[in-house]
Amino acid sequence: QVQLQESGPGLVKPSQTLSLTCTVSGGSITTNTYYWSWIRQSPGSGLEWIGYITYLGTPVSSPSFKSRTSIWRDTSKNQFTLHLSSVTPEDTAVYYCARMEITTRGFDHWGQGAQVTVSS
């Protein structure tokens, strides 16, 4: 059974960089049928896709975040990491990592979510 777990600071100051890591167990991030995604949900808003990293290690970001986002992976630890730079209070959200099935583009496994608050 695949499990995903987000980790990282829960409080980030404005203008700093948000950093979250997703640790995957029960399956490899190099399996060629999945992409590994970051998604967030802000208070009172729906889910917002941030980006993903492919099984080959290629990052793809949403145009809404592209200039501020870096996604990379550590295959030795079976982890992938999100950096979101120049954060503002509007980046306060619950951040999820999730596995995306390539052919259906559906998210079939999710982490429990990590609350990140941007505040001075």
Keywords for this structure?
11 strands, 120 residues, 4-stranded antiparallel β-sheet, 7-stranded mixed β-sheet
The radius of gyration is 13 Å
Binned, the helix content reads under 10%
- Gross geometry: globular
Largest sheet: 7 strands, mixed
Number of DSSP-assigned strands: 11
Distance between the termini: 39 Å
Please tell me the overall pLDDT.
96
**Structural class determined from secondary elements:** mainly beta
Helix tally equals 0
Strand residue content: over 45%
Description:
- The termini are far apart.
- This protein has no helices and eleven strands.
- The protein is mainly β and 120 residues long.
- Strands 2, 4, 5, 6, 9, 10 and 11 form a seven-stranded mixed β-sheet that branches. Strands 1-3-8-7 form a four-stranded antiparallel β-sheet, with no helix packed on it.
Can you summarize this structure?
This protein is mainly β. Helix content is 0%, strand content 53%. The strands form two sheets. Strands 2, 4, 5, 6, 9, 10 and 11 form a seven-stranded mixed sheet that branches.
SSE diagram, text form:
Elements: E1 3-7, E2 11-12, E3 18-25, E4 34-41, E5 47-53, E6 59-61, E7 69-74, E8 79-84, E9 93-101, E10 106-110, E11 114-118
